[in-house]
Amino acid sequence: LRAADVDLQKRLIRVERQYNDASTEAKITLPKFGKKRTTVYPKKTPSSNRYPQGFDLAGALRKRVRKVRRQDPNGLLFPAPHGAMWRVTNFYRNRFHPAAKTAEWPTHIWHRPATDKQTGEATYVPTQRLDWPWHSLRHVFCTHYLWELGASPADVSQAAGHESVDITLRIYSSRAPDALNRLSSL
């Protein structure tokens, strides 16, 4: 994400490229399915133990964008320590997981398969994992927007950058909380 991709007045972010380091050669490509998107970011995050009134996301992003724009209008908003883009492995270890821990996201214990170094026997090592990995944040957002905030499927489709409302309905209609309770009350 570059400083030029953020419209501070309208709270919009344009997603026009992605950094793909899945292969041996890292490169910048068009976003998923070659589709550029624009989305809005909230003024505040939902409340949490650490931020009972929510975190002032718009204010924090405004400060960061203005600082980066003074140096380079096309500069990266959140560069890796050496100034370049984050590699996937470094991003998760150095940014995403510490942020999730700070935000007190829910976790669960997963028993990771391993081999005992002394005996060579197969074993399982208990490992703490996030209930919401990176991509699931998108699903958390869409589900919350649709079912908790009462947005229309068309609004959720646009916010998520789905090709059509059909995709939104196919993915999120099965997650309708209390659907059977509502049906039984008719």
Structure description:
The chain is α+β, with helices and mostly antiparallel strands and about 190 residues long. It has 6 helices and 7 strands, in the order E-E-E-E-E-H-H-E-E-H-H-H-H. The chain has helices at about 55-70, 90-100, 135-150, 155-160, 165-170, 180-185; strands spanning about 5, 10-15, 20, 25-30, 35-40, 105-115, 120-130. The strands form 3 sheets. It has a 3-stranded antiparallel β-sheet. Helix 3 packs antiparallel against helix 4 (about 155-160) and helix 4 crosses helix 5. The longest helix is centred in the middle third of the chain and has 15 residues, at about 55-70. The radius of gyration is 20 Å and the shape is globular. About 5% of the residues are buried. The model has no long low-confidence stretch (mean pLDDT about 85).
Condensed summary:
The chain has helices at residues 57-71, 88-102, 136-148, 153-160, 165-172, 179-184; strands spanning 6-7, 12-15, 18-20, 27-29, 37-40, 107-115, 122-130.
| Structure annotation, total helices | 6
Strand percentage, roughly?
Answer: 15-25%
Q: Within the largest sheet, what's the order of strands? A: 1-2-5
Q: Number of DSSP strands?
A: 7
Percent helix among the residues?
25-40%
Q: For the CA atoms, what is the radius of gyration?
A: 20 Å
- Spans of at least 5 consecutive residues whose pLDDT stays below 50 are none
Structural class: alpha+beta
Distance between the termini: 48 Å
- H/E topology pattern: EEEEEHHEEHHHH
Largest sheet: 3 strands, antiparallel
Mean model confidence by pLDDT: 86
From the spread of the alpha carbons, the general shape counts as globular
